[in-house]
Amino acid sequence: NSSVKFICDEITASATLSLTQKASYLSVSPTSLSSKWDGGKFSITISSDCDWTCTPGKEWIIVSSNEGNRGSKTITVDVAKNTATSTRSGEISIVSKTSASSTRVIVNQEVAQVSLSTQSLNYQWSGETLSLTVTSNCPWEITDLPQWISASVTAGSSGMTGLSNKKKKNDGNSQRTYTASIINKDSNVKQEVLLTQKYCVD
Fold first, then answer.
1. Cβ neighbours of residue 24 under 8 Å, at least 6 residues apart?
2. CB pairs under 8 A, 24+ apart, for 158-163?
3. What is the 3-state secondary structure (H, E, C) of 25-66?
4. 20 by DSSP, 3-state: which?
5. What is the mean pLDDT of residues 175-192?
6. Is residue 67 packed enough to be buried (19+ CB in 10 Å), middle (13-18) or exposed (0-12)?
7. Which residues of 151-187 are buried (b: 16+ CB within 10 A; e: fewer)?
C-alpha cells in the first residue's frame, strides 16, 4: 500500500489518496496427483490474471508446457515408471512472473509390490502339489525353476499359482533345495521362495 497527499496552499484543506496494488490471482486444480507405480498422464488446469512459469521438481515428472499467460490453461503431466523399491513424491511449482504469487501440485507415486503367502515350500520325497499365493499390484513372473518343479502358472497380475513336483520323486540320498525368484521385470521388485524336497529314508 502507498498513499499520495494533496495540499493546496491557498486553502487549509488536504486529501490523502491511498493506492493499493491488487495481488495476482494464481490457482491450479487439482493440487495433488496420485500415480500408480507404472506412471501415466494427468491433466492440471492453471488459472491466473498474470503470466507464470511451471517447473517440475523431479526428473520423473514432465510437463507439456513450462509457462503460460493470463487466463486458463490445461497442461499434461507425464509421470514415469517408478523402478525403485519405495514410494516417492515430488512437486510442480507454478510461479507468477510479475508478483510473488505461487502455488504447487504435489505428485505421489506408489511402488510396484509383490508379496508371497510363504517364503518356503517343503515337499515330501514322493512328490506333491503345494500352493503359493502371489499378491501384487503389477505383472509378475517366475524367472526359473529346477527340473523337479513345475508351475501351473508362471506369470500373472495376481492370484494363486501351484508349484508341483507330484510326479518327481527324490530318489537321491539327500534333500534338494532351490530358491525360485518372482519378479516384476519393469522394476527392481523381487521376492524369493525356498523350495525343499526331502529324500526317502529306508
1. 48, 49, 50, 96, 98, 99, 101
2. 158/134, 159/133, 159/134, 160/131, 160/132, 160/133, 160/134, 161/131, 161/132, 161/133, 161/134, 162/129, 162/130, 162/131, 162/132, 163/121, 163/129, 163/130, 163/131, 163/132, 163/193, 163/195
3. CEEEECCEEEECCCCEEEEEEEEECCCEEEEECCCCEEECCC
4. coil
5. 91
6. middle
7. eeeeeeeeeebebbbeebbbeeeeebeeebebbbeeb
The structure's pTM equals 0.75
| Over residues 59-77, mean pLDDT | 96
Q: In the predicted model, is pLDDT for residue 101 greater than 70?
A: yes
Average pLDDT for the chain: 87
Please check the confidence at residue 12 and state whether its pLDDT lies above 60. Answer: no
1 pLDDT above the threshold of 60: no
Q: Are 26 and 102 in contact (CB under 8 A)?
A: yes
Banded model confidence at residue 88, pLDDT cuts 50, 70, 90? very high
Separation of first and last alpha carbons in the chain: 98
Determine what percent of the chain is predicted with pLDDT higher than 90. 55
Distance CA 96, CA 71 (A): 13
Return the H-helix or E-strand segment holding 192: strand 190-197
Distance (Å, whole) CA 115 – CA 134:
6
